[in-house]
Amino acid sequence: MRKNIWSSFIVLFFLISCQPSSEELFEAGIVALDKQDFETAIGHLNRLVENDTSHAPAWNARGVIFFQTGKWDDAIDSFSRSIDLDESNYKPFFNRGNVYMEKEEYKMALVDYNRANGLDINQVDIYYNRGLALLGLEMYEDALIDFDKALHANPEQPQVLFNKAKAHLGNNDPLTAIATLEELTRIDKRNGAAFYLLGVTEMSALGKKEKGCEYLQTALSLGYTQAKDWIDEFCAE
Predict the structure, then answer these.
(1) How many domains does the chain have?
(2) Residues 141 and 180 reside in one and the same domain
(3) What is the residue range of 65's domain?
(4) Do 68 and 79 touch, CB atoms closer than 8 A?
(5) CB within 10 Å: which end of the chain, N or C, has fewer?
(6) Which InterPro entries is this protein grouped with (predicted)?
(7) Mean pLDDT of 92-119
(8) How far apart are CA 108 and CA 142, in angstroms?
């Protein structure tokens, strides 16, 4: 009888000792996430939070997986759990803001980006993404401030310049928008969207048909097919 009890104890001890730790499961989940093996990653992280519900980074990582797979509400739930456990980390606020942006809930996104920025003012991506939220809310002057902060860190960012131009247009400043787009096309000569917006702005805001058509033809040659409608209507000989 003693032998059986002792043997059972040994087996139980062996099974317990072979269970991966929370950090081992977290590391395995992150490795799988980096490889975009989302099914394996969520398996490791679900196992982790079942045993350790207070692991804030795991909840944040789960949210990233749900974000990557388009499960917005599940992503928000996971990021919110991470925030509830640790309000000192900017990442889940930033990540949840990104989900709200996908849902076009710009006010909610702005709140989260403000919280993220308050926790780490050195994260350039926060300024750009907050600028996009402000652009969505038609708060153009504030958006321009954030886009400029993002560009201060790296002046040659095509997407930031493109959205900065859109903010200038929203702010009824086509001349500065054109200057920004021209700067963008010097940096990225194959940016069809920038040439398209240049063409449309030259024609509709300044009445410069010839120059506008040149930009639209360039946009079309770069594969930006939306330019064709404008070319057919306004640029045909």
Answers:
(1) 3
(2) no
(3) 19-86
(4) no
(5) C
(6) TPR-like_helical_dom_sf (IPR011990), TPR_rpt (IPR019734), Ycf3 (IPR050498)
(7) 98
(8) 16
Shared-domain flag, residues 64 and 132? no
DSSP state, 71?
-
Q: Which residues contact 143 (CB under 8 A, 6 or more apart)?
A: 131, 132, 134, 135, 163, 164, 167, 170
Q: Report whether pLDDT(12) > 70.
A: no
CA distance 221 to 117: 40
The first and second tokens of residue 65, run together, are 């997986």
Give the model confidence (pLDDT) of 140-152 as tens digits. 999 999 999 999 9
Place of tokens 């509400």: 73
pLDDT confidence of residue 237: 65
Strand ranges in 5-67 using DSSP code E only, listed in sequence order: none
Catalogue the long-range contacts made by 128-133 (C-beta closer than 8 Å, 24 or more residues apart).
Answer: 128/157, 128/159, 128/160, 128/163, 129/94, 129/97, 129/98, 129/101, 130/97, 131/160, 131/163, 131/164, 131/167, 132/101, 132/163, 133/97, 133/101, 133/106, 133/109
pLDDT of residue 1: 45
pLDDT digits (tens, 9 = 90+) for 23-39: 899 999 999 999 999 99
Could you tell me the two tokens for 66?
């749900």
